[in-house]
Amino acid sequence: MSSIRVNVDGDMQTLINRLRNMENVDFRGVMRAVGEGLRTSVFERFDRSETPDGHAWRPSIRVRESGGKTLIRTAGLRASIHVESGSGGVAVGTNDVRAATHQFGDVRTIKARDGKRLKFKIQGKWKTAKSVTIHVPARPFLGVNEKDELEIKDTLEAAVENAMEG
Question: How far apart are CA 140 and CA 15, in angstroms?
Fold first, then answer.
């Protein structure tokens, strides 16, 4: 699974340690709640076409030429985002093979097979070539921002309060 790993420290690490030491806490459930909050945050980034730090994604050629939203033609990448949680923590990511290309960007050369030519349409015009190099800009969708950190902290604090009351 392609994922982003975030280590917590300070207040959040203190809260996690307290939760782990409390007997009546479903720590896996707390981590599942944290993960679902992060997954929702990733979905919202797809909806807003922006990076975790709030910068707009560069629109794709398809979007510039025919409209729609970048990275959401079929919504397959968005739908592949899932959560894995357990007593050791939580991971939010995807097993979609396109994820790393879009998260980090890439440069690729596509060559025609058997000495033939590629035929493709760009800016409304058909072009042919034996090979073409494409530059896919990074469009990060995985990551944790300040809002996510506050939501994680709120979830952990609520779990500690519930455990102390119960």
Answer: 29
Q: How far is CA 81 from CA 4, 39, 70, 101, in A?
A: 12, 7, 16, 15
- Residue 86, both tokens: 């357990």
Of 107, 91, 81, residue with least CA distance to 32: 91
Give dist(CA 151, CA 28) in Å, integer: 17
- Nearest residue to 38 (alpha-carbon basis) of 104, 94, 102, 107: 94
Model confidence pLDDT, tens digit, residues 26-85: 888 888 999 999 999 999 999 999 999 999 999 998 898 889 999 998 899 999 999 998
Q: Which two tokens stand for residue 123?
A: 């800016």
Does residue 105 contact residue 137 with C-beta atoms inside 8 Å?
yes
Structure tokens at 5: 């790993």
